[in-house]
Write a structure and sequence with these properties.
Layout (H helix, E strand, L loop, with lengths): L6 H13 L7 H8 L6 H28 L1
Helix pairs in contact: 1-3, 2-3
Amino acid sequence: MGKIKSKLIRRTAKKFIEEGVGFTENFKDNKKILSDTMPSKKIRNQMAGLLVTIKKQERVNKPKIIQEK
């Protein structure tokens, strides 16, 4: 049940990644990056957590993609 995020959070995170904003696998660093752009603390924390998850998945799945080519 903890994996449910609103469409707004997922859509905005996807936009940030497409724009090339330098997010990391560290929650605190992502929070600092989002501190001036997010309207509320709750949304900022949800977004930072989702971005950590996305970055970890990219790290795990990237070697598989490279090996297939």
